[in-house]
User: Fold these one by one.
Assistant:
Number 1:
Amino acid sequence: MKDPIYLKKVTSLQEDTDREYCRTKPDREEENEKGDGKKKEKLLDVGFFQLFRFATWKDTLMMVVGGLCALVHGAASPLMLLVYGMMTNTFVAYELEVQELADPNKTCINNTITWINGSIFEIAENTTVFCGVDIEAQMTMFAYYYVGIGLGVLIVSYFQIALWVSAAARQIQRIRKTYFRKVMRMEIGWFDCNSVGELNTRISDDINKINNAIADQVSIFIERISTFIFGFMVGFIGGWKLTLVVIAVSPLIGLAAGLMAMAVARLTGRELQAYAKAGSVADEVLSSIRTVAAFGGEDKEVERYDKNLIEAQNWGVKKGTIIGVFQGYLWCIIFLCYALAFWYGSKLVIETKELSPGTLIQVFFGVLMAAMNLGQASPCLEAFASGRAAAKTIFDTIDREPEIDCFSEKGHKLDKVTGDIEFHNVTFNYPSRPDVKILDSLSMLIRAGETTAFVGPSGSGKSTTVQLFQRFYNPKEGMLTLDGHDIRSLNIQWLRSLIGIVEQEPVLFATTIADNIRYGRPGVTMDDIIQATKEANAYNFIMDLPQRFDTLVGEGGGQMSGGQKQRIAIARALIRNPRILLLDMATSALDNESEAIVQEALDKARMGRTTITIAHRLSTIRNADVIIGFEHGRAVESGTHNDLLEKKGVYFTLVTLQNQGNDMPSPDNETIEEEILQSFSRGSYESGLSLCNSLFLLKCPSYSIFPQQSKEEAEERVEPAPVARILKYNKSEWPYMLLGSIGAAINGSVNPIYAILFSQILGTFSIRDLDEQRAQINGICILFCAVAVTSFFSQFLQGYAFGKSGELLTRRLRKVGFQAMLKQEVGWFDDPRNSPGALTTRLATDASMVQGATGSQIGMIVNSLTNIGASFIIAFSFSWKLSLVVVCFLPLIGLSGVFQAKMLTGFANEDKKAMEAAGQVSSEALANIRTIAGLCKESTFVETYEQQLEAPYKSAKKKANIYGICFAFAQCVIFMAYAASFRYGGYLVSSERLHYLVVFRVISAIVISGTALGKASSFTPDYAKAKIAAAQFFKLLDRVPKISMSQIDGEKWDDFKGELEFINCKFTYPTRPDIQVLNGLLVSVKPGQTLAFVGCSGCGKSTSVQLLERFYDPDEGRVLIDGRPSHTVNVPFLRAQIGIVSQEPVLFDCSIAENIQYAYLHDFVMTLSVLDIPVLSLTQKYETPVGAQGSQLSRGQKQRIAIARAIVRNPKILLLDEATSALDTESEKTVQAALDEARRGRTCIVIAHRLSTIQTADIIAVMSQGAVIERGTHEELMAKRAAYYKLVTTGAPIS
């Protein structure tokens, strides 16, 4: 029989390698990327025992006791072998006695067989034959032994797991708290060098890796090593010769197990890397879906995605093949090893009589068990290694002393602050860019109670001075003083509490408006808040919101427009009642109306305070007491507005540049755009949106309308998909699947065959005739060799065939899924459930989960079924009574397998969920660290984070007990099963004359099938998940888009003129159904005319463009194109006629040429004029890669490439949505000229905030609240002296 323990070890080895490679995919991938050399260095730094540096004496005690328990547990299996060996001897002796006593002339006297005539019966070598074995009593005794061992195991294995897991939970809790607290204490310069994303992963993943390295893995490692040692001891005590023979072969087994684990890990890493490329393509495409749709690039993108999938597919197939080869090799070696050991062992039993049959078994399995356990200990080492690597970064941070410690109590607090600030020869560079000098011996004085304005070109160090004064950084040389005291000598928290700051990009936290304002100063009343909002001109818009002060502002303030966020931030600064007010472009994100009012609020707020203002719009700082001009990190001039104009220096140049060519003072929009864009790309879920400015209020999905629970419900309601449909996608691979199933069936029957051969060998020991005995043993050994070879091929077949079919299916599903996503209308992407991140994850995980329901899964099922079927047939045909007794234990053995699988998967998910809340706190805190530091709110976030950690900690402690109980149960079931079945077997042998070989055969066959059953059932959770994943997938495939993208639906015509008409269009965004964006829009353009939309943010200018592109259809009214209603026109045809340049152009991660060609395949030299400067000055010309989202180019260069991309299509309609907003004055002129050229003979719609750019338009339509309030040419409208005139002359509001 195949010893069940041993078998259990083999199958669990299999599970461990599977589990292992599942658990450490990310670590492996990281390690591969980092290269092996680094890996070695990295691991040397944190010693294994240093991982436990956060353990208290109580934790240490728990771990020591747990370790001892593991040691004892490890000795249980070898101990059981001793019992097993004695039992075998008893059976053999009994059988021999029965055979002798079958002769009626023999009888048993005084435990010796004698002839009836009284002379003692002797066999060949003049030895007597022992008799009088009381088989039942013996078996009862053995049963007690088994039960005793089983109970011992139950107790120690519970403590082994529970103590280690709970000790680890306590330490991890401490590490998390210490780490987060330390990170929050770091100076800002440290955050410049560590990205927020990286810190978040460290908090979640790296600490989990440490957890893996110090929890149950350690105890399991101790247990396995202890089994290894005791196994060898049992072997050597029993018979050293056989032990040495088996030892000689066993490294081959260990080697195979180790190599397989490594190969699988490495290949999985490769496969993930290859998929990561495809994933990044998908992410890029989905985040800029509007650009893809506008330029009709859907098919091109699907191809690009599929190209990257092929590589991942090939790695996957390789992985399947290699697993097959190694599995085959492993089983082949194991069976050959059996053949050798039994052949040599039987020699020792029969010829030299060094061993008894029992010791033969004891030695053989002892050594085998030792070897297997050594092999299984290696995955634990891997967990330790990745834990140590992860601990390196964590502990380095924990041990680092911050240069500027915001929690420190040190430093003076001045009794009276007047507010004189002086810079003495300050030199500074940012820690992340040590070679760029930002401030160069800057000296200046800011007097108390005065308003000082800083002006100068971007990058001249204006904002840096403000950050130095907040003590985010220390100057490299020189010093800053407040009222004559070096600020390094002052208490940080106190210093920051004097300062109110309003930044160019205000950061709000994901809570209510009132709470955001409360962050300014602890313990303020509601009246104070209302007062502050009134001063900041925020009160009115807050009272208009449905929930007023309790309105949630969304993640990063994403639910508020730029102006609203800015005013809340101003209220937050004012509520502090600061001595010193820092305004860093505070009004840049506002439209004219709000700017005027906020400016007034700020003027009020500045009274009697020292104020520093930084502005690009010079109109806002004319009345400052002192204006300081910056250039190259120095203060080059200072004085009032008029003084500086006379000096004709930096200030003069800036003023003339801003007024040049405008017959009205136009605010410098460049900065607004930047603000809006940056706050947009950070704040909301759709950073790639191109047409965002006027949609500010509208675009971000409102979570107040989409309550969180609807998201959950939608996820829950998915019906699992029928398997038949999943298989349909796999049907072209049926030959592979058939081959794989045949292989699996052969593999399944190997174990039952093994049970027959094994029991047969035991049976041979009771044959009297030695020649007969030898012949049988040799025959059985040859059969073992045959089984070995067969199983090598069948394992390989199963691995390869299912690997191949599964990977093909995954790739097909991913491609089909991606295609289906790109077919959806743009409105679908606005739903937060379909954010680019969520969709990319869905492509990555759902497709590979579906593979879980087919492919290797089918192999597992076929394998298990044949295994169970064959075992049952064997068992019941030999002895149905014994079979029934053993079968009673099957559910328990099976259950224990399920339990263990469940434990590992179930807990992982719970942990993730529990950590999510804490993760949100930490990521919000780290992303907005500057704001938090400025408000001195670090400790608040640390407290919140620690509260959020309580829940996961409690669940981890509960988990320790549950996991312990299940583990203990699973470990002891097998001992109990043995006790009962062998006891009953003994009864059958004595009372029903059953041959003992049948007892071994039945028990081993059924126990084997039990482990197979456990293995099959441990895959059920995967299977259920696969069905649900598939259902979500099919739901996506079956969804009919509201706006069909197909090439055939809708009409096309040849002489496309480009005449456009909007007739009473009404529209609301699907995600914000309560806000009317367009309200009866009525406007028309004749072919070749230019129509300009002007109006304040949120009045629906860009929305009208989106209706024209058919991203959305109007709720009421019609859009006519050449007199045909837009919803009857073929969408790809319509979009091919339109070229669009948006305010924030989206470029793809490829070369400039490919970006320009994106829209069209014709030659594109004609567009060179537009590109003008950028391309030719770049070294690789058109082949220059633009980087992810165009990051390698400046804003102006991106904008010009986008314009070239639009013109290259030779469109009939040109849509310019603030096309020149991102350019500086110089490039704007060049581009504007190019655009005027491009507009000739085309219908053109322009949206602009800078009125100077649209004076030449044929029609100017002034919009307000979703409707046109006046239209005409520039001259007509100026003559009307209504809204447009006011806008031009005063910059007054138009709503």
Note: The mean pLDDT is 75.
Number 2:
Amino acid sequence: MITVYWATTTMTNVGYGDIVPSTMTEKMVAAMVGLIGLFIFNYIVSQIYATLSSKNAARVTFQNLLSSVTLFMEHQNLSLSLQKRVRDYMSLLWSSYQGEAYPGGPYLMHDLPTELQQIVLMKERGQLLSKIPFFEQAGPAFIRDIASVSVMYFFPRGEIIQYSDTITRELFCVHRGICQILTDDLSDIVALYGEGMCFGEVGFMFGKQAVVTVRAKTHCEILSIDFEKMKPVLERYPAMKRQIEMLQNKTDYYNQIVDAVEGMMRSKHRPIEEDVTQIRRKDAAFAYEGRRYAKKSKCYVEDFGNFPIYAGTEEETIEERLLKLSKTRMIPRKPRTYLEHMKEFFFRTFPSFILMRNAILPSNTTYIRWEFFRICVAIAISTFSLLLFSFLHKERWMWIILYNLEGFCWIDIYIRMHVAFYKDNCLQVETLETAKHYLKTSFLLDFISCFPWEIIGLMYFNINTIALWDTRPEILHIFAYLRVPHILQLYRVPLAFSFYQSEITTEKTAVTFLKFFLYTAMFLHFCTCIVFAIVCPPADLTGDPTIYLLPLGKHNCSRLSWVNHLDYSFDVVYENVTFTQLYAISLYYATTTLCGIGYGDIHPYLTSMRIAMIFIMVAGALYIGFLSGTVTSILANADAPRAAFTDKEDIIKLFLKSQKVTGQLYDSILSFYTFRWIRTKGVNQDVVFEYLPSSLLGDVSTIIYADVIAKAFGLKVKRKQRQELVTQHLSPLERKLSGKLGQPFFQEVLKKESVEQLETDAGFIRLLARQIRPCHYRAGDIICKRNEYGAEMYFIDKGEVDVLSIDESSVMITLKAGQHFGEGSLLFSEPRATTIRAGSNCDLFTLSKTSLDEAIIYYPKIYKEIKKAAERKQVELIQNSISSKKKKMGKDKEFSSDDTGYIKFYKDIMEEDHKKNYNKPTYRGCFLLDSFSNFWMHLLKFHNSTMDPVNPIRIIYQYTSCLFIVIFFWSITFMPITFNLSQNLFTMAMVIEYILLIEILFKFHVAYYDEEGTYISGYKSASRNYLFGKMGYFFDIVASFPSGLIVLSLIGTIHAETYFAFIVKIRLLHLPKILSALIFMREEEKSISTNLLVIRIIKYLVQGVLFVHITALICVLYAENTDRFRGDIEASYFVKKYMYGAYWTLATYTTTGFGDFRPRNFGEMLFTIFLMIIAKMHVIYNMGVLSSSQTNKQSLQVAFEEKLQAVTAYMIDTNIPSNLYNRVTHFYNYIWTRTKGIRSEVLFQDIPHCMKTDIFSRICIHLLKKQQLFAHLSETFLHHLVSKMYLISYTAETLKELGLLRLQQHRLACYSSPGKKAPEAVCEEAEEGQAPRRPGQASCQPNSPQPYHPFSWQMYDHWTTKWITYDC
């Protein structure tokens, strides 16, 4: 056992020093054991980290998505009820899929083989699908394929599944739960849909508007079948396709569905006048009517005329639930025999007499507060019970407190018998059922942990309880041990944390840190009580009860225990030692053991104590490892989005440098990604709402976009406006430059009857709003360029947009929030009239032509009208293009004085600018005046200049300033406390002080990014930001003010040394300056442009230096006040005492614990305990921070290496030849070196279209111009062409062997002949299956006339060794 004890102390790095190696062999063995223990426990920590990191990764990712959704909704000022609906749905989605899948995305088990997937889906959904009327005659194969394209949605209680008047090609089938059919205004419940029933047939079969509104009465699982996804399945089953088409062609079938719904509505016996009013209301325009509560349907509704939006429901009360149960409860059979009467009495009659009538809902606020109070009581009982059996068994007040607290435990048992619970997705509220459920689950554990087990001891000893405290304290000690089962009440604590953290909306990080703080405190308390209780067990009942080693506490400890040596180690007098001192010493012993320090002043002597310490040391090492792994995993998952974003930014930098894209375009791209990180934190907002079902997404989109849709499209829809829509009167030319039509969208192209139809159609607004997507542009970014062919329309939500002149030198018009532009390109595919640029950071909404067509296609008549208008406009554009070319033939016509279009418009502007410049005053004078004026202008220019935050000069001086601040803090605290009045040290501090004063001037000239991501570089704004910042000018000037000037008048009045000491102490007013360095490092840590690992290492080093320095100063102060700084060397000077304090702090901080310096009294012991805990927490947190940074930094490389390992393993298993194996691995290494394994089309998919066009124009437009096929095309078309191209990397050996890439049908390939210095490109056309031709065997254009087919074109750049591929 001694050997096991020594091995454990060595492997866990505790090392008390009671057993030490003496010979060289023993020392070598000890070193090997220590190294093995280091590797073992570090391996355990790494495994814990890897497990927890993978466990929490999905949750953190989903929480980041939920946070983005929440921020977006708050930014759009959505109602709290709508935000709650979204959060409730996302929480339900998390509980169902744990973030691994979502409806509409990849199937949860998508990595299974197809056959196995179909078997699983058929088992889950096959029976339900076979009951659908459309598929009753279908075979199992068809049902299996339909199950593969179906989607399962989850709806929380009260959520709307489908609105009437909305259009969706989905068929909904109730898989689990109950649904309610509501009236169109959501005010009444018409009918119920149960499991196996379907709705949505009208939209699914005919593409018409839905005829019923459906709401989830309970938690529902709805199976959805999209008709568009079902079309490929129907192509494989012609018989089913004919059957579906036959039903679609039957108008009687549609009428039957509509008549059935109308009959169901009439069954509610609504008055005829009310029906007429409802019909008239449908034909009226929308008008906001406020919020109302529908009593029958028990939900809140926000009305927009005939467009109601669900706004939440009231939770069903216990009384209402019991009333429903009383109507549906089965009448039990009357008892007949005597035994049945007894069972009826004990199991129904008597419990119903004891129990309350109503159950308690788990979501009840009062019950939640009671649970919180009960957990606090459980912690208190467990804490006091440990103190009772270890230290305070004879204290009456402790027993009284415990008995009072136990009263709450019995009350809690009675309350928990009434808590409702869910069974088969149904809330059980009958008290008899809740009591039975509690008795079957946790009643036994609660009873064991609440029952006063000392009653058994009283029955055994049969003595008077009053005399126990005076005559038999040893029996009281035994009674205290009988109360140990009360510690089991702590089981409620992890259950409470688990329940609280199960909600995805809960911020897990803060709760986790709180949980581990509580667990650490309880673990320390438990170990403190154990290390004392083991050596001081209950007294011998047959011995002399009057003789105690510790008389005050009535403890008779073992003769060889560590308690018997306290008088030597800590100057303890056994007759006077108190509970506080004993607990502090035990806590000190437990803390040194758990933290792995082990000074050696206390160590076990007894075998039983050594066994206990073995378990405590191992448990402590494992717990600290678990704590470190948890912290690391939390921080790694929290930093994962930033790491992914910075990895992508690094890859973009590598790509741009390899393609020699530099200068302003390079800086603009990097600035855009910085702006994107500030605004979105790396979350792609295009997929933010992909998780929501169509009904909920429709509500969110309608509330946000109804205003802009109504104004842009000319629909007289009125609702509660989110913002004041701007009306700006523009001239015809200004409207043309902005890409605007002469009048609102639909009024321009549709007939009056069609516009009125859309105005009264609530489904159209909801359908179109779902197609709009948000986007962000940085100030100065080009949104669209002149003559560019676009197909998007933009709505300005926030910011300003500048419409530029033709030469892009001036701003013609400024469009503000609430306006829109680009509808001409959306409707008619017009080229942009001019370049449009973001005047400030802009939040825009975009609507593409594809999305508009998807909405209009459900209105055939309107679709034909828009199509005809677009065809007319296209003819007009072609004619205008031809006429403009004819005009260019004669230069006189180009500058005709009769022109009233663009030329006259720009001539007027040029004349006005000329007049302004002509009337501008000029200065004439002597040469000296001109020179002074030029010097003054240059000086003002220099003064008004600002420095970029990423400028190397700014970075160097800021980090140097932080170093100076740390040195300054050390010097001004070291001198007054150690009384070291060194002149050199004082001079150094003075120099740093004045350097920091000069730094204030530089801070006025540092540019910055505001909260919206706008880069502010103007001197006035930058200086104002620093002047009025929270930690800006006023803080710096107060913290850096030369305080020595205050006592300057005392120079001649007092002694020089006294004055010097006085000025050293008054300089402590500069201490707040250290905050500016800490805040700077925190801000640098948030910045996306900094190296996160480096800044965190610097931050850790600074914190460590400050920690050691401050602790050493505290030691010096304590030595100064008590003159009891303990050690083998007695320090006679305060500087030496500072060095000893720093040495002891480092020994404790690094868990070395040599034992030459150790605490001796109560105050030193408490300070050491505090220091050990804080040091361990600081090390664990910072090691977690650094580990997470390094892990995330290498995550992309690890993923690529895992893929390469899988590829190599596959090639080995399939016996791939070695030469081919080497080529494949060489290719993977090559693409990792070039692009880190990410393709260019994926790399730039989230940047603005114009910026992407500029990048690829810089890379490959010169290659296009050298080809005869594209040489005659315009610059505008070539820019549009390069935006469709992407780069493919090939190694030289692959090109050498292949000569050409494999060509698909009608693929045109251009490549460079081997051995040529310049890219001598040759084109050829290859049919599918033909051998590729060699260079020079084909002309660059096909001669034989052939019909046009889509083809892919590839071109090889000899200089960059890249193949550029364009798919037409």
Note: Residues 254 and 322 are 41 Å apart (CA to CA).
